[in-house]
Write a structure and sequence with these properties.
417 residues, alpha/beta, Rossmann fold, 7-stranded parallel beta sheet, 14 helices, globular
Length: 417
């Protein structure tokens, strides 16, 4: 029996970002489906193990080895896209050539803002193919335009005016496109509630972990390590202050010493600057290690070697809203105690409680008590382990989530016929 095919359009695909779609394509053949991908080429490559998909077309809009040329090309593409929808146009033309040569059962598009939703809608309508839209992130989850990473002006007022305009434009484009989707999938209850305002056919499919990579493993370590893997966009969104204050207090009381107790960040330069500034503020530089970002294939070993896994968020009113980051599910899978700060008082706290995977703290005292509890276990055994709720954990397997996507695809085809 020949496999059915989806045409997958996305703003990024491994080895760059979007592991959600990378894992989906990895598991689809097990359920009788195959994928053809058209995506933008992104410079940062952190998921090499998901780059084995043979049928991916990467569109290079502006990347160049010459930084000056790249800046010129980026400015041109940005302006052309803003005025004429250039990126959607190029992707649509590229994808149409795939459709002309192959038989597809449906179109799946994945985005975190708006591109390439419009191209997907136009291709779906022109070729009469069912359309599934997957929103990995949404603009509304951020508190203050953090979804736009680039500054457009050194003048704060001018920059705020432009980012506000751009945000409204992105939301308008996204919401118009959503109305044409046969099904919308997204990643948390907050996202479902928000997106349902524009399309009633919304299904929740969480992010998750790859079971063949992330699993429990007992590993003794000579130091107690609180580990964070990933970036900090801003302390408004991801606030580590409670941890730093707790460590300062524990150090002052001589409960911990830097020779045995480490806080380790695997991250980018911007985050290192944030961490070092906070370490200086609380005078705990001697406890901090900052390492470069690593590709995702190395992350499981880092997690296995940890004692506590640090998850950063903030209270919902000021921080991110409804984000169920992939990091949490990978932490959960290795069954190490999770320290989540600051408590979001929302879906993440609820899930940590349901999975029995750690603590979602809102006070320094809670953080200190949790650290000392795990520190005592490490001193006794040479490692830590969290007794998570395994039945709750299993629903977050990437392979199981691929099955959920396939179920949606099958229902759509049955309805179409």
């Amino acid at each position: 029996m020949s496999q059915k095919k989806i045409l997958l359009l996305c703003d990024a695909f491994p080895p760059a970002f979007a592991p959600r779609m990378g894992y989906l394509c990895k598991y689809l053949p097990e359920y009788g489906w195959d994928s053809v991908v058209v995506t933008e080429e992104i410079a940062e490559k952190i998921f090499p193990q998901l780059a084995e998909n043979r049928n991916v077309t990467y569109i290079n809009y502006y990347l160049s080895e010459n930084r000056f040329i790249q800046k010129i090309k980026y400015a041109f593409v940005f302006a052309a896209d803003l005025l004429f929808g250039y990126k959607n146009y190029v992707l649509k033309k590229t994808a149409q050539r795939k459709i002309d040569k192959q038989d597809f059962s449906l179109i799946l598009v994945s985005s975190y803002r708006a591109f390439p939703l419009k191209a997907a809608v136009q291709l779906s309508r022109r070729n009469k193919l069912p359309l599934v839209m997957d929103l990995r992130d949404i603009v509304e989850q951020f508190s203050d335009n953090e979804h736009i990473s680039k500054r457009f002006s050194k003048n704060k007022v001018v920059n705020n005016i432009f980012t506000t305009f751009l945000t409204k434009r992105l939301l308008n484009q996204r919401n118009k496109a959503l109305a044409y989707a046969d099904v919308v999938t997204t990643v948390s209850p907050f996202h479902v509630e928000t997106v349902s305002q524009y399309n009633q056919h919304v299904t929740l499919i969480y992010n998750g972990f790859a079971p063949e990579l992330f699993f429990p493993k007992i590993k003794h370590s000579e130091q107690f390590k609180i580990v964070y893997t990933g970036k900090i966009l801003s302390t408004v969104l991801e606030d580590p202050n409670l941890l730093f204050e707790s460590v300062a207090q524990l150090s002052a009381k001589e409960k911990i010493i830097p020779q045995l107790f480490r806080i380790q960040f695997y991250t980018n330069e911007k985050t290192k600057e944030i961490v070092r500034a906070l370490a200086d503020k609380y005078k705990i530089e001697k406890y901090i290690d900052c390492f470069d970002m690593v590709n995702s294939a190395l992350v499981p070993d880092i997690l296995h070697d940890s004692s506590v896994l640090l998850l950063l968020t903030n209270k919902q009113k000021t921080g991110t809203k409804g984000i169920m980051t992939t990091k949490f599910f990978e932490y959960l899978a290795v069954e190490k105690p999770i320290l989540c700060i600051r408590n979001d008082e929302s879906y993440l706290e609820k899930t940590i409680h349901e999975t029995q995977s750690g603590i979602s703290a809102k006070t320094v005292e809670e953080v200190s008590d949790f650290i000392l509890l795990q520190y005592a276990e490490w001193q006794k055994n040479g490692y830590t382990h969290q007794q998570v709720n395994k039945s709750e954990k299993q629903q977050y397997s990437r392979k199981r989530q691929a099955e959920e996507f396939v179920s949606i695809f099958g229902s759509l085809l049955k309805h179409t016929k």
